[in-house]
Every structure is written in structure tokens, then in C-alpha cells.
Amino acid sequence: MRRPLRLRGRASLCVVALCATVIAGAAEPTTAPSTAPSTTSPNVLTTVSDLIHAAATADAGLRSAEARAVGADAAGRFAQRWDDPRLGLEGGRVSLPGDDEWHGRIDVTQRLPLGGEGAARAASADSQRALARADYVSARLTLAADVRRLVVNLRLALAEQTATRTSLEDASAAFAVVRTRLAAASARQAELLMVQIDRDEADEAAALASQRVVAARAALARRCHVDLTTIGDPAPLTLSERDQAAVAAAAARHPRLITAEAQVRAAEALAALARSGRWSEVRAGVFGERVGDDTEVGLTLEVPLPTWNRNQGAVGIAMAEADAVRATRAGVRQQVESEAEAAWFAWDAARRRAHHHNERLLPLAGEVLQLALADYAAGRGDLTSVVAARRTRSRLALAAAEAAAQRDHALIIVHTAAPVAEDLP
Predict the structure, then answer these.
(1) CATH number reported for the structural domain that contains residue 351 in this entry
(2) Residue 130: is its pLDDT beyond 70?
(3) At what angle are helices 383-417 and 117-183 packed, to 10 degrees?
(4) Residues 62/143, Cβ–Cβ less than 8 Å
(5) Contact status, residue 151 vs residue 224, Cβ threshold 8 Å
(6) Which of 26, 46, 54, 77 to pair with 356, CA 20 to 30 A apart?
(7) CA separation for the pair 98, 15 (Å, rounded)
(8) Distance from C-alpha of 204 to C-alpha of 328, rounded to nearest angstrom
(9) 3-class secondary structure for the chain?
(10) Is 395 part of any domain?
(11) From the CA atom positions of the chain, what is the Rg in Å?
(12) How much is the pLDDT for 390?
């Protein structure tokens, strides 16, 4: 689970008490108002699963892939059924020496799927069904990854907004301390101008961060096909963290590998169909014939004689294609496993970096700022150290937010490269 961003330490209690009366009278910079919709509305979407569901419901590409999968299922149910029989009608007048008679004939013929044709057709239908299903799963995973990436972007923008507002509070506290010392004739006017510039820069950074929140929320709303007002502050990702062995095992579920397996089965089924093609036109039937007052009823059987062609050309082409598809499958498997391994290493590095920023660097920067501000308020330090400490803390807070976002982006890639059962539709 993603740890919330914590920005620790504003200033020491003594400094806050010293500055409280001064801040109220200082000219405060203006910041952009909150752009988050009210979370009390029942229509506000905050969980990742709700956002993915909203996107999946309205996504045209996903609906198209789902329709093709349904069509493949319908085709598979009829794959092993025989072809419809054929009805033949024949009639005419027969002229014989000294007599004319009417002639009529009716026959029904049925093509017989011999030579393993029925099993081959069923296997081909199953492979097409698997291909359509893999396309749908791939589209669903892509959509889920898109939504999750936009959620991470919005959470990053919100974390940056929090960090810049905290930085603005720190700059305002320093401004108040300088004003207090200036009133006591223990500070110079140039120092007041220095912290005023520092505070204005922090105010501008906070305003820009608020604009990025608006843009990130709008991008998420567009992808989910919902109104901007329904996008709340999203909850952290709930993707499970997995070790390297689990990621390697889950790579076998990747849609590209499933597609490659289905393509091999389809090629093998086509090869089997080609081998059965030499007997594809075997037909059996019944007929009835009447000439004048004479009636004849009988059976018919049509069998091709595999003498010259024997469908060997089609068989050779189909078998060569099956060999090529098997080689492609081996390459896809190697590529999928390599991508899953690389994704896990990237996530592990990003996880360690985010932990170091949040648990080590950021708390230390907060302590440095507290000490620098307290020393300056007591007349023991210089203002340059306070401004530098404030900017260092702001920079590390933004870096911690970016590191957390990179960690979550890397985890999304892990789950896309090696999906687990709960990721699959």
C-alpha cells in the first residue's frame, strides 16, 4: 500500500507563539481555491475500482472486443455441427420412340465430415474463441492500467499541492519572524525583502500546483467518460506487492502469451483441416425417381479419388505456418518473461527510493528547518540558512511525492506485465 506523504515540522513551538500575533497582520498571498468536488455526494468516484468500472462501461474499444468475444463463443457452439443437407429437384418430359413420358427426380445429399474434420473444426473454433478472449482481456488490462496511471498522476498533483502549500506556510512563518525582528530593530530591511521574495515564489509554486490538480482531474474524468465533478480525491492503489518469483510465475497469464498459444492451436487446427481436405467432399444421399409409371428409390455416395493432388499443397502450407507460429510463441514467451523481470526490478528500485525519501530525507529536512528558524528568531543564525533550509525541505517534499508516484507507476507496469487472477476480467 502506498504510504501517505507526511511533511513534518513547521517551526518550533516558541517560534509559532512568537509569530502568531504578527501573522494575523501580515499581508497574506492568495492561493487558488480547492478544486476537489464535495466528497459528501454519493456520485463522487474515489476508489480505483469504481473509476475502472466507469471507464469500462463507456469505452467503445472494450465493448467492441467484448462483442467479438461473444461472437466467437457463439461460433464455437456450432463448430462441430454438420453442414446442412442439400435438396435437388429435377423434372422434364422424356421422348421415347412412339411415346412421351414425364420424368421427375428428387434427391437429398449430406456432406460427411470424415478424416478428423469435425475435431479439427472444433479445435479451430476453440482457438478463435481463445484469441477473442485474449483480445478482450488485453483491452481490459490496458484500460485498467490507463486509469491507474491517471489516478497516480492525480495523487501526485495532490501531493505536490500539499507540499507547496506547506512550503508557503514555512515561508510565511519566516516572513513573520523577520518582521518581528525588524520591528525590534534586530533585522535589516533587505532581509525582509529577501523573505518576501521567497514567500512570493512559494505562493506561485502553490498556485501552479493547484492548476496541475485541475488538469490531472480533468484527464481522469475524460478517460472514465464522467463529469469532472464526479472525480474525487482518489484512494491509494490497492495493487498487491509481489516478490520476483511470483511475478515470474504470473507472466504466463499475460494476454500476449495467451494470444500466441491460441495462434499455435489455430495453426495446428488449420493443418489438421488441410489433412482432412482430401476427404472433404464425401457425400451420401437418397433419391427418388419416377419415369412414367415406373418409380425408383435408392442411395447415393460420392467419394473423391485422391489420385493427383491429394491436397498436399494446402497441407504443406498449413504445416509450415504452424511451425512459424510455434517459433513466434517461443519469442513472445521470452519477451514477456524478460519484461516482467525488468518491471519487477524497476519497481523494487522505485520502492526503495520512495521509502528513503519519506522515512529518512524528508524528516531530516524538517528538523533542519526548525532549528534554522529557531536560531534566527533567537538571534543566533542568519536568514540565508533559513531560506536555504525552507527550499531544501520543499524540494525534498516534491521529490518524495515524485518518488511515490514512480513507485506506483512501476507497480502498475508489474501488474500489466504479470497479471494476477484478480487483475483479469
Answers:
(1) 1.20.1600.10
(2) yes
(3) 170
(4) yes
(5) no
(6) 46
(7) 133
(8) 54
(9) CCCCCCCCCCCCHHHHHHHHHHHCCCCCCCCCCCCCCCCCCCCCECCHHHHHHHHHHHCHHHHHHHHHHHHHHHHHHCCCCCCCCEEEEEEEEEEECCEEEEEEEEEEEEECCCCCHHHHHHHHHHHHHHHHHHHHHHHHHHHHHHHHHHHHHHHHHHHHHHHHHHHHHHHHHHHHHHHHHHHCCCCCHHHHHHHHHHHHHHHHHHHHHHHHHHHHHHHHHHHHCCCHHHECCCCCCCCCCCCHHHHHHHHHHCHHHHHHHHHHHHHHHHHHHHHHHHHCCCEEEEEEEEECCEEEEEEEEECCCCCCCCCHHHHHHHHHHHHHHHHHHHHHHHHHHHHHHHHHHHHHHHHHHHHHHHHHHHHHHHHHHHHHHHHHHCCCCCHHHHHHHHHHHHHHHHHHHHHHHHHHHHHHHHHHHCCCHHHCC
(10) yes
(11) 37
(12) 93
Tell me phi and psi for residue 287, to 5 degrees: -145, 155
- Residue in the structure block whose three cell numbers are 514555512: 170
Phi, psi for 196 (deg, rounded to 5): -65, -40
Q: What count of Cα atoms within 13 Å lies in the side-chain half-sphere of residue 170? A: 36
For residue 60, is it within any domain?
yes
Q: Domain range for residue 351?
A: 13-25+43-86+119-264+342-423
Contact 333, 257 (CB under 8 A): yes
Contact of 130 with 262, CB cutoff 8 Å:
yes
Q: List, in order, residues 6 or more apart from 421 with CB less than 8 Å away.
A: 253
Q: pLDDT tens for residues 338-379? A: 888 888 899 999 999 999 999 999 999 999 999 999 999 988
* Residue with the three cell numbers 435408392: 298
Q: Is the dihedral of CA 128, 133, 134, 140 positive or negative?
A: positive
Provide the grid cell at 178.
Answer: 523577520
Are 118 and 141 in contact, with CB atoms under 8 Å apart? no
Tell whether 77 is covered by a domain. yes
Number of residues that this document lists for the chain = 425
Domain count along the chain: 1
More confident call, 235 vs 83: 235
CB 274 within 8 A of CB 318: yes
Q: Residue 42 burial (CB < 10 Å; 0-12/13-18/19+)? A: exposed
- Report the distance separating Cα 178 and Cα 401, nearest Å: 30
Q: How confident is residue 279, by pLDDT bands cut at 50, 70 and 90?
A: low
Q: Are 221 and 228 in contact (CB under 8 A)?
A: yes
Residue 276 lies in a domain: no
